[in-house]
């Protein structure tokens, strides 16, 4: 499939030439220090073929993309009972907004806004210690990617912890409505570490294959569950810019503040793109543009 | 394709046997009087095949489903300039909420909430009289459906007008932010009549073919525009239950308070379902259930 | 009481010397044209003594100050039943916000925010024509002021009408919750004209005497009603800057976007101040400063 | 002044006969266990006279009434610089709402809603340890009341701590906006203990004398500061029922969830009333009724 490689080459060149690369996240030093000149992209197929361009082998902090993996674990543990804890509607608010929690009795709208992700981590933990949950999570991601060399970046986790007061506020708010089963500080500890998972585009693209349902892809969940996680990524994966991503790219995706985006082309392939500079909505600027170019070139939008 | 017919038969039987049929919309007498026992469904293919079950030839008020047609006209007239007037994000609020307008300077979040639909009608009207716009709209729907026997129900339009104070409030709010180009009462007149379009499931399914992009379907807009309208239907087509519909059905859809839902299976077919009783979110209760059964039976979810 | 005159003289000089005079309201031409260099103040006692400084005999548009008079009429007509229609709590929002209406089923929080004032006008009108209500209102204000030369400025009323879409939005919102008994356009017509009452500081100070309860003041309502109107002015009279006015001045007051403020010193006197430039909260900048100087100089704060 | 005593006697009898005594706060066991049959009231004059009725010598948890004392300390420490940290406007929201914080960058609207009170405690602490701040606070209240027998109820403080997740959420939200100078848990520790101050009506009435400005009252702050604290109590002292209290009672007051209310009649006397059952707004039901009867009987409303 020389086609995909030539598309990636073209995208890589275009991105290299782009001057406005967005703004690197500033809220923790390990992210603020990342060089905005970087750009990488990888496309993985279930039959093992992998195409890439740019810094596709450079590790970056996947941040909120980890929410997809935790959601998979939580659904695996609770099944549909999970949805009594967390909703599945777009919030119409910023990723870290607390407004909706007050209006809806502390129940977060979906698993991808911060509050919902914290509640999802709480559910996925069951009553285990954070370290046991994290071990299981890392193991799950490694199995999905078929790569043992995936780790949590302790320095990033520690920085998150040090600046996590808004997430603490969200968590205590939910706790005040009896929405969490574990002690708040333990849930947050697990959550901050989960966000500090460090992966390359190649690893991330491979890990996303489980969501494609393509023949030969790792089957880590039922087709129904896979389908529904894709639906959630489409509806809520880019916070309050999810509509824009669906409009421009037309594929389920989940972004992270580290500049990565995981994109699923159901039945076809899994795509990971990374560039640390963010647009005004907090999603990777070049990553979004690259995803749009890729979707147009391949015609892979689920809506066409 | 006896398959589709047998699926429809099965759905028709299941729906007939369902006791809890939801609640028929009460806000205007012509809707409140509709018999909740009715259920119809039709599936149209681009090659002319059409399958149906139940009351698929009974006319009903398509209400908000008309917003899809008006959006098509507005985009045809303005192109991407349209998006300076209306956003494309889910609102996280009820279909008739005014909160978001106050927070975002009178710019509605998407073309399918009431405020956004009114702004879309205003854009589609250009500076024509309501009657000229309505003539164009009806002509467009007839062309899409390949059926001249499609009309606006004057009694329904008049009832909408008589009870439309909340829509008036939305429209004047936008006008106070200079968001409308036509006089408010003219925009509302056009909007109330547009919502009063009366169609059968068969007609509606055929009219939806233009959005499938299936070979042979009427081509009334560019592929890019078609794809994007589908994306908007997926993200915002069921108001604050769009996430739920995406999760359960996995296909772009647009519901109306009259109990109809238009569903697009890109590349495959167009589906219309109708049953007047609504669920708590204001969408057809049996319609949603039938759509879910259909998507599961066919495996047509765009996310699988 | 040469004391009051010398206080006013001192204030008048200080205000004349003030360079930052705020910004004159721009939303209608008749207000935008007013010369910001003007400042007037008058203090009326129940025994007939009247002290003044500056442009105290110049007419200005009293705008929202008229809400005090309409509230008096509405309470006169309905008694405590009025409070089933309108609340009496500060809103914590801008004077023209619609948010609270959506959260509280269309019932405005108090009679002084725009929505509440429109509902109050509706109540005061009973089922009379706008012109009859307005005749009664003007008569009431003239009686309170003991001055027949008080009129509605037709040009201002017409301008309000032409730019009143936000007030229309508020009114239709309330109508959609069955909160108004008269047709919306009639209520608004009455409301726009009421706001266009034109008075001088001297007239306004005299008209406010009825709220002082001082011996000899016109008794146009029961002591209990008078006391309660003062309480409402204190809590809600300056919209979302009521706390600031209470903190700095310590007297019940009602401001208008024309730059006027009516202030009541219970048991003592009635004060009117006017300067057209507004501060960031939409209240007269110099008027507020003058009121603060006056309250400090006299020690008349109700809280001391 | 047998007058006041006979008024209190009449109120005491009326309250004893009242069947609907409201609902005792349930959120912590020490409050939930309090007998709702109790009612006490005390009126203190600056010349030492003290009148009382009912359970005026029974200790109760003053809860949010303590916010008045902490505010006094914070203003004493910071002067007007305090107002850069906390606003002075009614919030239009429940006492524990977090909405306003999100809309206004973490700056609480006034010192009496929970968020504002936590910020006030933080300011009053300066950089001292909680125990030092609490020692100073208790000393201040004892000095105001002229009574050494005033203490913090450790069991109540501990219960507050155990159920304080919503307050934690508020505090961490403010911390995320750099609004607190002390570690969150220390501020909260101080806050929970401050709310657990235990006093009788007699002690509380005497402690309130400092706010009356009556000749002979303890002078613990400047007249200007005293006046302004009264203004804040009037505008914000009963959360989202402050308008109602001003309307019905017409005197500055501060309520607590323990069922107490401290009321100031400027220039005249200080009143404390207590009955543990709360009304729908979370203020003492009988306490409010008694305050209204007292204000009507004495004519002490500041608005008359």
TrEMBL record, chains A, B, C, D:
> Which Pfam families did the record assign?
Glutaminase (PF04960)
Enzyme class, first EC level, given as a word: hydrolase
Q: Which InterPro entries does this chain map to? A: Beta-lactam/transpept-like, Glutaminase
Superkingdom to which the source organism belongs: Bacteria
Keywords, sorted A to Z: Acetylation, Hydrolase
Q: Which SUPFAM superfamilies match?
A: beta-lactamase/transpeptidase-like
State the family named in the UniProt similarity comment for this chain: Belongs to the glutaminase family.
E.C. number, please? 3.5.1.2
Catalytic activity of the protein:
L-glutamine + H2O = L-glutamate + NH4(+)
Organism for this UniProt entry: Loktanella gaetbuli
Complex and partners: Homotetramer.
What is a single molecular function from GO for this protein? glutaminase activity
Question: Sorted alphabetically, which HAMAP family does this protein's record hold?
Answer: Glutaminase (MF_00313)
Q: Which residues are substrate-binding?
A: 64, 114, 160, 167, 191, 239, 257
Can the keyword Acetylation be found in this entry's annotation?
Answer: yes
Name of the protein: Glutaminase
């Amino acid at each position: 499939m020389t086609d995909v490689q030539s598309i990636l080459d073209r995208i890589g060149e275009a991105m290299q030439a782009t001057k406005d690369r967005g703004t690197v996240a500033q809220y923790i030093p390990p992210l603020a220090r990342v060089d905005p000149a970087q750009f990488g992209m990888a496309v993985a197929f279930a039959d093992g073929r992998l195409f890439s361009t740019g810094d596709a082998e450079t590790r970056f902090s996947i941040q909120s993309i980890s929410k997809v993996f935790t959601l998979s674990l939580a659904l695996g543990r609770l099944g549909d009972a999970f949805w009594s804890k967390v909703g599945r509607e777009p919030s119409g608010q910023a990723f870290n907004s607390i407004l909706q929690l007050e209006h809806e009795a502390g129940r977060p709208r979906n698993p991808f806004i911060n509050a919902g992700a914290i509640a999802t981590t709480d559910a996925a933990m069951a009553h285990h210690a954070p370290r046991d949950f994290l071990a299981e999570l890392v193991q799950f991601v490694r199995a999905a990617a078929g790569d043992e060399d995936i780790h949590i970046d302790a320095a990033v986790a520690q920085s998150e912890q040090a600046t996590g007061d808004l997430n603490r506020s969200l968590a205590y708010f939910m706790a005040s409505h009896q929405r969490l089963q574990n002690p708040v500080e333990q849930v947050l500890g697990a959550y901050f570490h989960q966000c500090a998972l460090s992966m390359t585009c190649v690893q991330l693209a491979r890990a996303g294959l489980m969501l494609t349902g393509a023949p030969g892809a790792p089957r880590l969940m039922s087709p129904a569950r896979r389908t529904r996680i894709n639906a959630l990524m489409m509806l809520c994966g880019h916070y309050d810019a999810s509509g824009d991503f669906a409009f421009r790219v037309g594929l389920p995706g989940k972004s992270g503040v580290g500049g990565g985006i995981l994109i699923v082309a159901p039945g076809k392939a899994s795509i990971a793109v990374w560039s640390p500079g963010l647009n005004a909505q907090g999603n990777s600027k070049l990553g979004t543009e690259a995803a749009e170019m890729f979707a147009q070139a391949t015609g892979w939008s689920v809506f066409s």
